[in-house]
Amino acid sequence: MKVHYGIENFIPLKRATVTSGTFDGVHYGHQQILAHLRAVAKEDQSETVLITFWPHPRFTIQPEEAKKSLKLLTNLDEKIERLQLEGIDHLIVIEFNAEFSQMTSMDFVRKILIEKINTTKLVIGYDHRFGRNREGGFEYLKTHQDQFGFEVEEITKQEIENAAVSSTAIRKALLEAGDVQLAGKYLCYNYTFEGTVVGGNKIGRKIGFPTANIQLQDQFKLLPKSGVYVVRIQVGDVWHNGMMNIGRRPTVTEGIQQTIEVNIFDFSSDIYDQKVKVEFVNHIRDEMKFDGVEALIEQLNADKKVALSMLSKA
């Protein structure tokens, strides 16, 4: 997959089958769109093109609200990594700035889809909108496709177990319930995040559960709700099993800022300042306040047994 940052220097193709959107998470619904995109391109003997936008449009259109409330399933690097697996020929990353947000749907079609890419077929999701104030959509495109000179196809809503799959549904599962298994089902892969191991106050080490304290790499990356999770953590090229707490540690340090701590099983190396990747396997329980350290240690031992059992079945 060739990654093009900006449309300015993109050389129009002889034939292009195109889709566009934010593709946050590159979930099951997105994967179905891309599978159809590849099938159409093969039949049409054209190259596949995916247009995506960065930053997420809401950070430009509603910046204050987005900074307060919007968390993303994938940052740009993660999105590119996931799309690499989908067999797309060209990924065009367009900067979604104030100027671009004012482009009309007609200008988007003429200046980008036609002039810059030479689109012969366009495949879009069932709820896809584009252009200033989200004025463009499937009906608009279908009505004008003869004028535009390319065919338009709409992919219907994709469901798993009678539930519509969307980035919003995945965010809700993670934020409201910590349901990383449902999120993983919708994503078709385990949800992950990356960060750097930083120094902590070593409370975990004192009670027999040393932890790697992780600082998120991206401030707008979504973390599931506070609680204890079964995880796998990649250190260097090696994956390890563990359990992670997201929260404020109410039993020992109530009131501090949220922390991310991973107890890596059978591991004792110094990994301060190293970048790591964490993959969610399952949710064990919500964060709780215990009647003292002894009760906390007893619960952590129980949590570890649950985690090992879940990992053996994963």
TrEMBL record:
<dbReference type="Pfam" id="PF06574">
    <property type="entry name" value="FAD_syn"/>
</dbReference>
<dbReference type="InterPro" id="IPR023468">
    <property type="entry name" value="Riboflavin_kinase"/>
</dbReference>
<dbReference type="GO" id="GO:0005524">
    <property type="term" value="F:ATP binding"/>
</dbReference>
<protein>
    <recommendedName>
        <fullName>Riboflavin biosynthesis protein</fullName>
        <ecNumber>2.7.1.26</ecNumber>
        <ecNumber>2.7.7.2</ecNumber>
    </recommendedName>
</protein>
<keyword id="KW-0418">Kinase</keyword>
<dbReference type="InterPro" id="IPR015865">
    <property type="entry name" value="Riboflavin_kinase_bac/euk"/>
</dbReference>
<keyword id="KW-0548">Nucleotidyltransferase</keyword>
<comment type="function">
    <text>Catalyzes the phosphorylation of riboflavin to FMN followed by the adenylation of FMN to FAD.</text>
</comment>
<dbReference type="InterPro" id="IPR023465">
    <property type="entry name" value="Riboflavin_kinase_dom_sf"/>
</dbReference>
<dbReference type="GO" id="GO:0006747">
    <property type="term" value="P:FAD biosynthetic process"/>
</dbReference>
<dbReference type="InterPro" id="IPR014729">
    <property type="entry name" value="Rossmann-like_a/b/a_fold"/>
</dbReference>
<comment type="pathway">
    <text>Cofactor biosynthesis; FMN biosynthesis; FMN from riboflavin (ATP route): step 1/1.</text>
</comment>
<comment type="pathway">
    <text>Cofactor biosynthesis; FAD biosynthesis; FAD from FMN: step 1/1.</text>
</comment>
<keyword id="KW-0288">FMN</keyword>
<dbReference type="GO" id="GO:0008531">
    <property type="term" value="F:riboflavin kinase activity"/>
</dbReference>
<comment type="similarity">
    <text>Belongs to the ribF family.</text>
</comment>
<dbReference type="GO" id="GO:0003919">
    <property type="term" value="F:FMN adenylyltransferase activity"/>
</dbReference>
<dbReference type="InterPro" id="IPR002606">
    <property type="entry name" value="Riboflavin_kinase_bac"/>
</dbReference>
<dbReference type="GO" id="GO:0009398">
    <property type="term" value="P:FMN biosynthetic process"/>
</dbReference>
<keyword id="KW-0511">Multifunctional enzyme</keyword>
<keyword id="KW-0274">FAD</keyword>
<feature type="domain" description="Riboflavin kinase">
    <location>
        <begin position="186"/>
        <end position="312"/>
    </location>
</feature>
<dbReference type="Pfam" id="PF01687">
    <property type="entry name" value="Flavokinase"/>
</dbReference>
<keyword id="KW-0808">Transferase</keyword>
<dbReference type="GO" id="GO:0009231">
    <property type="term" value="P:riboflavin biosynthetic process"/>
</dbReference>
<keyword id="KW-0067">ATP-binding</keyword>
<keyword id="KW-0285">Flavoprotein</keyword>
<keyword id="KW-0547">Nucleotide-binding</keyword>
<dbReference type="InterPro" id="IPR015864">
    <property type="entry name" value="FAD_synthase"/>
</dbReference>
